[in-house]
Design brief:
The structure is a homodimer. In chain A, about 30% of the residues lie in helices and about 25% in strands. Chain A is an alpha/beta fold and about 425 residues long. Among the domains of chain A are: about 140 residues, FAD/NAD(P)-binding domain, CATH 3.50.50.60; about 140 residues, FAD/NAD(P)-binding domain (3-Layer(bba) Sandwich). In chain A, the strands form nine sheets. The first copy, chain A, has a six-stranded mixed β-sheet with strand order 5-2-1-9-21-20, with helices on one face. A four-stranded parallel β-sheet of chain A has the order 13-12-11-17. In chain A, strand 15 and strand 16 form a beta hairpin. At the A-B interface, strand 5, helix 4 and helix 11 of A face strand 5, helix 4 and helix 11 of B.
Chain lengths: ~425, ~425
């Protein structure tokens, strides 16, 4: 490969970044993909890791392994410290020399937003990475261990109270599964009646799953109630402490709060000098490039893309389609062809609530209940990366389905040595 | 259950502790099992977790799940802070009231011994817990990531040099697998030739696997050489630093050292006030009780048991047999029958070196090579706890066997939030 080969730098190994790299497989470019972890995570199933249904490795693959046969791609585990759009240079956190690029694809995604209350994060972790999922699992399981050890019934009830902030898909999925697990664990404890577990889902808006049609929201709400979840809409959290959550003057005693409300784009977007919204998401042109910098593409949860008057949702299929589109426009550039505008094709939205409970929105028709749940299962297994993961997940789900048990209920501590 | 029911406190949920609890299933006692983690670990396969062949959950099960149907057993996740053998009381680290016992079974096992150089631990972690295994995995994989990022060839070679201290089963297994993985990863990297990986096994004594007959040691030594491992016997480590290991005046440049030499019993043994050796292991009577305290049993790696002039080895089958024996003597006490002396029945020793390479010692005859390897595989799958784990492990091993790939090559960081 000569020095003249255009260099494409991709920031982020999520759905968008990986898809972009793959779509440039046969293009006359060299690619450097940078991620601060060594693995791609299948984010839609993170809640299963957080609730001990799957092991981390079931839903993650090493990025360099995924791209091992793509000889024009180099993968570096590193963190970006700065981007200079004028000099077309990315600076990295470690000893690596700066990377000059001809094209930059920014796909670094989003973190949770605490709406200006960053101090809440310590009490109410969110769910975006494998580490997040393991931290949530640890907290969830340790609460039961502590409940089993206390003689104070008030403390025990607070330990058995789990509050989920945010009624989007992640909050709903976590709430449903946590209530199910608590019941399934009842024979494991001697002093604690795990059926006294309270799972409280707080949604600031008027209904759960607000991105779905109203009738499906309603169904999901009822499904949650049937599972024993306490659902509170129009419930704006005003304070989060280590032993309580406040909604105005109302105090809910709890030791375990999880955060699934609001996204905040990674800070990379701001260092591009492009226009962005309060959440840090970058406004892009129809071809997904940044205004004034046609060599910079922004994709996935980091980008604001409007279509038919609505924002394209921050979901995996949209990120993947954007990855493909950005790569296509680079290939068009290199062949001297005009760029193509991005257009999101929504193939349907799915959300699961619990065993045999799910909703699916295909625009023209809706599916709910058992059928939607099996559909959800099928789609997620099909999309899971890699043959091995798929089989392993299938096996564990089959086991869980038959036995009502979760296989991965391990509490691991942070290592003393690292 | 009345207050008069004898209370058996078991410290440690390893092979010995779990087996003792199960053997008291039908005895007229109430049992409290205490472990500082929530899970039992199948230690003989920890090296597979450390080398990304298995997920932590494949070789571990929640202790309370294992004992969920045993109604006379309560499991507490806690740490022992003191034992008062005269008052027959165990004090715990947290807010729990002291536990009075009628019988105490101490089965807290061993940690690595750094022979008075505790400061080496930071540079050379050992392999006893799930956390240890994940820490080793992280270090092992990150070394390759760093090698891929450096432009300094000397540094790269140091990063690709892995030193294992201790030529027992753990050291040998780690060495063999690490060399194999390094080769299998060669297409994942663009700048690093993973075939230049050096795995150096240092054994202080005259031969590797010293607990095996000499002819099998020899075979294992040759197997390691065939895999490309550098084996050094009579090599006593005199210093461990962050960038080197010293053997006298010889300096080996390396960034990654793992420790598999020497055991040191947990400190519990010393707080029993019983006779113990330099490594902290407790001398027990033929019935496994402590002299002067027939109500205290010490089992597993924490106990020194001599038989036919030799020490019973610190292996899983011995710990399990001791667990059964201690429980049996408690049952005999309760029925007014005399106690029975413990007798270790060695069913054979196995060690694996790499694909199709293993050794087996059945006393009267030896097995090596491919047959021993399949035997090792069979025995370990059969012993693995729980149906689900067994199937999952089988699947992953089949996958690894066919593809030469490791499925679990994830680097997870310690959580920011816990």
């Amino acid at each position: 490969m000569t020095a003249r080969t255009p260099h494409v730098v991709i920031l982020g190994g999520g759905f968008g970044g990986i898809r972009a790299a793959r779509a440039l497989r046969t293009a006359p470019v060299r690619i450097t993909l940078i991620d601060r972890t060594n693995h791609h995570v299948f984010q839609p199933l993170l809640y299963q890791v957080a609730t001990a249904g799957l092991a981390g490795s079931d839903i993650a693959s090493p990025i360099r392994w995924m791209l091992r046969h793509q000889r024009n791609a180099t993968v570096l585990m590193s963190e970006v410290s700065a981007i200079d759009p004028e000099r077309r240079v990315v600076a990295l956190d470690d000893a690596l020399p700066d990377l000059e690029y001809d094209y930059l694809i920014a796909a670094t995604g989003a973190r949770h937003s605490y709406f200006g209350h960053g101090e809440w994060e310590a009490h109410a972790p969110g769910l975006k990475s494998l580490e997040d999922a393991l931290a949530i699992r640890r907290r969830f399981l340790i609460a039961f261990e502590l409940a089993e050890k206390t003689d104070d019934s008030e403390e025990r009830q607070a330990l058995l109270t789990f509050v989920l902030v945010g009624g989007g898909p992640t909050g709903v999925e976590l709430a449903g599964v946590m209530q199910e697990i608590a019941r399934a664990m009842r024979s494991d404890f001697r002093r604690t009646d795990t059926r006294q577990t309270r799972v409280i889902l707080l949604e600031g808006g008027p209904r759960v799953l607000p991105s779905f049609p109203e009738s499906l929201s309603k169904r999901a709400h009822q499904d949650l109630l049937d599972l024993g979840v306490e659902v509170r809409v129009n419930a704006l959290v005003t304070r989060v402490e280590s032993e309580a959550v406040w909604i105005g003057d109302e105090r809910i005693a709890t030791r375990t709060v999880f955060w699934a409300a609001g996204n905040e784009a990674s800070r990379i977007g701001q260092s591009l000098g492009a226009r962005h919204d309060r959440a840090g998401r970058v406004e892009v042109e129809p071809d997904l490039s940044v205004r004034g910098h046609p060599e910079i593409f922004v994709i996935g949860d980091l980008a604001i893309v409007r279509q038919d008057g609505k924002q394209v949702p921050a979901v995996a299929p949209a990120a993947m389609q954007m990855g493909t589109a950005a790569a296509r426009n680079i290939r068009h550039d290199l062949r001297g062809e005009p760029r193509v505008s991005f257009r999101y094709r929504n193939k349907g939205d799915l959300a699961t609530i619990g065993r045999h409970k799910a909703i699916a929105d295909f625009g023209k028709f809706h599916v709910t209940g058992r059928l939607a749940w099996w559909l959800w299962l099928f789609v997620h297994i099909m999309y899971l990366v890699g043959f091995r993961n798929r089989l392993s997940v299938l096996l564990q789900w089959a086991y869980a389905y038959v036995t009502y048990q979760r296989g991965v209920r391990l509490i691991t501590q942070e290592s003393r040595l690292c």
